Amino acid sequence: MNSRSIWELIYYTDSEGRCPIEEFIDALPCATEKGRIMALLKLLEEEGIHLHRPYADLLEDGIHELRAKVSKLRYRIFYFFWQRSGIVITHGITKPTKRVPPREIARTKAYRDDWLAQHGSKR
């Protein structure tokens, strides 16, 4: 791990000022879940594109997931890379099945499209 990160975590915010990932983290039921998610976000910030399974995975079309398990619950945090060193964190879910629901991938793509329209299309 690098002692100094070249990656910048950016929380996606829509045009109305809503931040889905902050809402997700705030709604987690206890400190254990919040701590695990925050530790994985820090690891992502340190490792960036070099973070792979079991912590992260590419889903499709540049959409990635950060993978967390606390007790029997599985959480997924969605993100994409932007410009040279940005990692835009969009939202999170409690994963209900073995596969990530396609609607969550579509939601992440919609957030990415909105982000690129607001901030530029360089990736």
**Main beta sheet: strand number and arrangement?**
5 strands, mixed
Task: Write down the overall mean pLDDT.
Answer: 91
CATH architecture classification name: 2-Layer Sandwich
| Helix and strand pattern | EHHEEEEH
Calculate Rg over CA atoms: 14 Å
CATH topology: YaeB-like fold
Q: DSSP helix count?
A: 3
- Shape descriptor: globular
The first-to-last residue Cα distance is 24 Å
List the domain count as a whole number: 1
Notes on the protein architecture:
This protein has 123 residues and is α+β, with helices and mostly antiparallel strands. It has one domain (19-119): YaeB-like fold (2-Layer Sandwich), CATH 3.30.2310. The protein has three helices and five strands; from the N terminus they run βααββββα. The protein has helices spanning 20-27, 31-47, 102-119, and strands at residues 8-11, 56-60, 63-70, 73-82, 86-94. Strands 1-5-4-3-2 form a five-stranded mixed sheet. The chain is globular and about 40 Å long. The mean pLDDT is 91.
Could you give a quick summary of the protein structure above?
This protein has 123 residues and is α+β, with helices and mostly antiparallel strands. The protein has one domain (19-119): YaeB-like fold.
